[in-house]
Amino acid sequence: MNDINETMDNAIRENDTNKIDDIVFNPKNVLIRVYEYNFDYNSGRYVDKWISIKDVNQEEFDWLSDDEQSYVQQMPKYSHLDYDGVVKQYDQDVLPIVIKRERSKGWEVDNQGNIIGIIKK
């Protein structure tokens, strides 16, 4: 599977506007600015990078990919918090969604979102 950034680079090279539009206008893709550090040269630079945020607001913080975690940390709601504060607040915000989703799948869950059995009908 191609990385979103590889797909975008290829689409730009091939002047494929449909592919570019698919990436840009997909609400689950976000362009973020990240700092890339080069250990060999002891320097770094900021680069723009497309990421998928399909699991943001659907999964607890630890289950998110590194890119999704970086995105959450940059969101205005969480940007003023330290790492532990982000994890705590984000999980607190997402927990009701996780519980509701697991129950809709037929799982019995506790108040922390842990699966503890099957819902008996």
In sequence order, what are the helices and strands, one letter per element? Answer: HHEEHHEE
Give the % helix: 40-55%
Number of domains: 2
Strand order of the largest sheet: 1-2
Mean pLDDT: 85
Rg over C-alpha atoms, rounded to the nearest angstrom: 18 Å
Q: Write down how many β-strands occur, each being a DSSP E stretch of 2 or more residues.
A: 4
Beta-strand share of residues: 15-25%
Structural class: alpha+beta
**Main beta sheet strand tally, sense and closure:** 2 strands, antiparallel
Counting DSSP H or I runs of 4 or more residues, the number of helices is: 4
Q: Give the distance, in angstroms, between the N- and C-terminal Cα atoms.
A: 40 Å
Low-confidence stretches: none
* Anisotropy-based shape: extended
Q: Descriptors for this entry?
A:
4 strands, 2 domains, extended, two-stranded antiparallel sheet, 4 helices, 121 residues, 22% strand, single chain, alpha+beta
Characterization of the model:
With 121 residues, the chain is an alpha+beta fold. Helices cover 41% and strands 22% of the residues. It contains 4 helices and 4 strands. Helix 1 packs antiparallel against helix 2. The radius of gyration is 18 Å and the shape is extended.
Secondary-structure blueprint of this entry?
Blueprint lengths: L3 H11 L2 H8 L4 E10 L4 E10 L13 H9 L8 H22 L2 E3 L5 E4 L3
Antiparallel strand pairs: 1-2, 3-4
Helix pairs in contact: 1-2
